Structure formats: structure tokens, C-alpha cells
Amino acid sequence: MKRKIIILLILLIAILSVSCKEHNNISKENNVYKKDNDKTVYSSNYRLSKDLIITNRYNLLKRIENNSAIVLFSGYPTEKIRFSPNRNFYYLTGIDRPNVILLIIKSKEVNKQFLFIPKSNPTLERWVGKTLKKEEVRQISGINNVFILNSFNPYFKKSISQYNIKNVYLDLGDITINTLASQIVSFDSPITQGQDFALHIRNRYKEINIKNIFPLIADQRLIKNKEEIQKIKKAVEITGEGIKYVMQNAKPGMKEYQLEAYFDFITKYSGAKEHAFLTIAASGENATIAHYQKNNSEIQDKELILMDLGATYGYYNSDITRTFPSNGRFTKRQKEIYNIVLKAQTETIKAVKPGITLSQLDNIAKNILSEECKRIGLINKESEISDYYFHFIGHYLGLDTHDPGDFNRPLQPGMVITIEPGLYIEEEGLGIRIEDDILVTEDGFVNLSKNIIKNIKDIETFMNKSE
Question: Between the CA atoms of 289, 293, 297 and 303, what dihedral angle is there, to the nearest 10 degrees?
């Protein structure tokens, strides 16, 4: 009897030991993420530094006419979506709270900067948490003039005459004030706070010119400094951890949304508060749909899985795509098509350097895909490649997943772009895309996501590594 009790105790200790080990390590030897490596989401490098924020405003003001006012809004919260600030507002203030207004007055004599924040409401704070105090706002933004929100309208009205304001710069997005008016009449889409305020200005102050500050800020945001690049690198690193965890756990019979859930868990556990966009988890024929969103199919044996995903860190985004086999082994045909896409991507990335444009990079990728697809008999002439490669090569990346910018603009050091060729063979239920995030440097490029495996041998080795 005593012997049985001793054996049971030994077994119990062993089980508890394994349980503790599993608790501290999300995975085993492949260790996608270890708990003891955890770093807080709110580390000092999460927010933009005050020095950078002040510099951002300084550089913008050099491009603004005298006798002008800038008005930007942080945005407002909704019940179903966690609040995320307007990116242009955040870029100039570092404030990521709702219902905050930035006002800047520029003339020959003065340069005044103000932030208007919601009044502290103890009852509301019991429901939604503490609001930022004035001193906190000053420390984050470098703006000393911080007032309560309800004082904005009277102060703005006073400033119009006091500083002889002739221009008001607002964030209208990629539209003009005239386009905005027709958009409202046709109910094409909801308007933003900036667009709404533009209509207010036009109706009340007919002598004032309304100017769109969006293209000026967008142009400035294209060139990242070291601090911004570090945030993108961190977002890419977290995304890479998520991709490894997905590959490690993928198998036939799962649902696509289960792979999405693995990515969600690891990225948020690793410090990403939000994702850059809705994750695409597309298996089999679903991968032939460029922006597939349902993520609800059952994954079949010998299918490829295309996952287009990205974590956000400090509001800076990553955007990565990897395609891998559900059972850990590529078929011969899958290898053939995959290597064509990989060749196109590799050669296009090699061409990245200052002076080249995204449009030129698209042509490089398209030419390689055309030649290779003709070689294997998928197409007969170059023009047919559009049947299988129907999107652009990439986009700018930063505070927005698709940072605004002209695809015919020569690339400059400090820009971050994506390179993402693909082939989508609907008749074979075969879709492959490979995407990396690329930093343009003085002498070429740096692949920020080079450590996320994409060669066939590396993928198969990783997915078939013993437990």
C-alpha cells in the first residue's frame, strides 16, 4: 500500500513539474516565445519621444504659410472598436487619447501651440479609466499650453481676428473641400472630424482659405528616423514570432480562424496592442483571393496556407506574408510555383535603392514572373501574366499599413516599403504570396524581416522539427 502511495506521489510531482514548464514556456525546444523573456507593452520606447514629436511639428511648420491656423483632431471612440488615434495627430503630439484637439497658430510674430483635452470627470473615469492630466499632456507632447476642451471654440474664434488668420489647415484625407461637399450629398462615406470642421469653417468664415494638410504630413512621414525604424523593427520581430507559432501548430483539419487565433495570442502576449490590419488566413483555393477575409474554412491535407498579417508596435506597423504547406511538406507543383514567386521577390528586393520607384520595382517583378510562367507553360505571352499576378508589388509602410505616397516617386533613404509578388492560379486552387518589409538605405536596402523563414527547405525543416 505504501509503495502505491509513493508511486502516486512521484507521478504527481512529475505532472506538476511538466505543467510548470508548460506555463513558463509557450512552446518547447522550438520556443517561439518564452514567458521569462516578456517585455512590458508600455516600455519607454513604446511612445514616440518628446524630442521627435517637437521636431515633427517644427519641420511641418516650415511648410505652412504665415497667418495660418492648423487644427487636428485625435478622433473619437466607438463602442465596438478599441480607440486608436488619428495617425497624423499622433505623429505631431504623441497623444493617443480620444477627443483631443491640436491648434497651432503661425504668423510672422508668433508660433503658438495648444492642446485642448476633455475635462476630468470622476464619474466617467470609474467606467473608462483615468483621463490624461494637463501636466502629463505637457510631458508627452512638449506643448505647454493645455486647456479644457470646451474652451477650444471661443479661443479659435478669437484667434481668427487676433492673428489675422487667412488659412486654416485641416486633415481632409486624400480629398479636396469641393470633393468633400459632393461626397456628403451622395452619402458615399462618413466624414471625419477634420472634414466636418472644414464645412463649419467654410460656412462661417467665407473669407478664410481651407487647405488640406494631409499631403504635407504624409510626405513628411515617408522618411523615417532611427526611432521610427526601431518601432517598425519591433513590430516585424513580434510578427515573426507569431508566424513561427502558427507554422509550428498548423495541421490539416484545423479551421483557418484557429491559425489566426494563434497569431493573435502570441503577438498580443509579445507586446503588440493591436494588429496592422485584419489577418488573412487563406488555405487552398481561398489563397487565390488577394484580400480573403472569411478565415472560416477547414484546412485540407496537402493544401498551402497563405497568411498575410502584421503586428503594430507603438502605432507603427509591420506587414508580412508567408505561404506554407498544411502538412509541412510542399508538393512538386507547389515547389515549382513557390520558387518562381520567391525568385521574383528576391530579385526585386535586390533592386531596391535610392532613386528607383515602386512602379519600376513592380515592372521588375512582373517581368520575372512573366518569363518564369512562360517557361513552365502557364502562359504563352507576357500580357497574360495579369491573369495570375493582378496586384501591385507593394506600398509604403509606417504609422499606416499603407502609408500614403506616390508610387512614381524616387525612393529615398529612410523610406520603408513592402515587396510582395504573388501568383494566384484559380484553376488549381493555388495561391502564393511572399512579402517582406524593406528599409531603403543610402547604399541600398535592409530587409527588416529577413529572419522570418521563407525558403522551402527552412520551412519544411521547421515544420517537421520533432517535439
Answer: 40
Helix axes 50-61, 214-221, angle to 10 degrees: 130
pLDDT of 184: 52
**C-alpha cell belonging to residue 372:** 518564369
The two beta strands, 68-73 and 167-170, are parallel
Distance linking the first and last C-alpha atoms of the chain: 36
SS3 state of residue 327: coil
CA distance 349 to 343: 10
Helix (H, G, I), strand (E, B) or coil at 115: strand
Question: Count of CB atoms within 10 A of residue 37's CB?
Answer: 10
Range name among 5-9, 198-202, 444-448 with the lowest pLDDT average: 5-9
Phi, psi of 210 (to 5 degrees): -100, 125
List of domains in the chain: 44-221 (3.40.350.10), 223-464 (3.90.230.10)
Rg (CA), the chain: 26
- What secondary structure does DSSP assign to 218-269, as a single string? HHHHTS--HHHHHHHHHHHHHHHHHHHHHHHH--TT-BHHHHHHHHHHHHHH
- Name which of 104, 91, 106, 122 is nearest 219 in CA terms: 91
Could you read off the pLDDT of 38-94 as tens digits, one per residue? 333 334 578 899 999 999 999 999 999 999 999 999 998 876 678 899 999 999 999
Does pTM surpass 0.70?
yes
Q: What is the pLDDT of residues 237-265, one digit of tens each?
A: 999 999 999 999 999 999 999 999 999 99
Read off the amino acid at residue 157. K
Report d(CA 391, CA 111) in Å as an integer: 45
pLDDT band at 37 (very low <50, low <70, confident <90, very high): very low
For the chain, the 3-state helix, strand and coil shares in percent, each to the nearest 5, are 45, 20, 40
Mapped to the 3 state alphabet, what secondary structure does 368-387 carry?
HHHHHHHHCCCCCCHHHHHH
Look-up: residue for cell 502629463? 136
- From the list 173, 157, 141, the residue with the least C-alpha distance to 75 is 173
94: left (phi over 0), alpha (psi -120 to 50) or beta: left
Output the average pLDDT for the chain.
89
